[in-house]
Amino acid sequence: MLDPRNAISSTLRSLGILAPRRIRAHTSVTPLGAREAYRHWASTYRTETATSCLDEELAQRMLGQLSRRRLLDAGCGVGRRIAAIPDAVGLDASPEMLAAGGARNVVAGDVRAMPFPSESFDMVWCRLVLGHLPDATNAYQELARVCCVGGHVFVTDFHSDAAAAGHRRSFTDQAGVVHEIEHYVHRDHIGIAQATGLSLVASDEGAVGTSVRRFYAQGIGLKAYRKDKGLKLVAAYLFRRMA
Ligand SMILES: C[S@@+](CC[C@H](N)C(=O)[O-])C[C@H]1O[C@@H](n2cnc3c(N)ncnc32)[C@H](O)[C@@H]1O
């Protein structure tokens, strides 16, 4: 059972973020840890949010024709991003998320200690996961380890600008109640990655704009949309393993 003291009463649909105005109104709320949050979010997670929509746009834009022949999605959630990719493998810390997705080729596990031999994949994704970890170093070491030399690692995260503007990660449970999820801001993805032997190929950002206007229209409203327009919600990095 969710502790009702952690809930923000609302029937509004979640953007995948919680706007600052709503946080100020509920300052006593304790964010849920990722493990508990995804246990409860699993059954409705498949519904896209502004954040997940921008994440997918960035992936389409940055990954282009790069090989997905041996692909690992580390922190795959319900496995929605790999569902149509033959032989792709998923890993996630939440058995509930994996079960809700019903995907094949998935395993429960921690991105910081993955059960795969070194250099098993030529493309490794880790999308909207690392902000749930207090320290991203071990995760980057593992992402680099399981990627073959010359292969690519693609990482996205909730943008530090959105966090600085007071937005928080959130989800709406089956009862329509909004919950905040624990999040850690990592400002030096590139430096941490480079220390593990990954070299930056490209970086990009996903900002509030027309492609996510509908989430505002269905949720917190167009006044909030106009205020947030241009705010960066997602940061994305494409790395190559050099040695
Ligand atoms: C926002 S969801 C993203 C899911 C998926 N990447 C997507 O874009 O649809 C974050 C996921 O990270 C997983 N996660 C959090 N901490 C993790 C860890 N230490 N190891 C593996 N997965 C983790 C959660 O269980 C959750 O499914």
Outline type: globular
**Number of continuous helical runs:** 9
CATH topology: Rossmann fold
Biggest sheet architecture: 7 strands, mixed
What would the average pLDDT be, to the nearest integer? Answer: 90
| Low-confidence parts | 3-14, 23-28
Going across the biggest sheet, name each strand in turn. 5-4-3-6-7-11-10
By DSSP, the count of extended strands is: 11
Query: Cofactors and ligands present?
Result: S-adenosylmethionine
Strand pairing plus helix content: what structural class? alpha/beta
Proper CATH architecture:
3-Layer(aba) Sandwich
Corresponding CATH superfamily: Vaccinia Virus protein VP39
- The helix content is 25-40%
Order of helices and strands: EEHHHEEHEEHEHEEHEHHE
State the gist of this model:
With 243 residues, the protein is of the alpha/beta class.
Protein model, in words:
The protein has 243 residues and is α/β, with parallel strands linked by helices. The protein has one domain: 3-Layer(aba) Sandwich (Rossmann fold). It has nine helices and eleven strands. The strands form two sheets. A seven-stranded mixed β-sheet has the order 5-4-3-6-7-11-10. The N terminus is likely disordered. The chain binds S-adenosylmethionine. The site of S-adenosylmethionine has 21 residues, from helix 2 and helix 3.
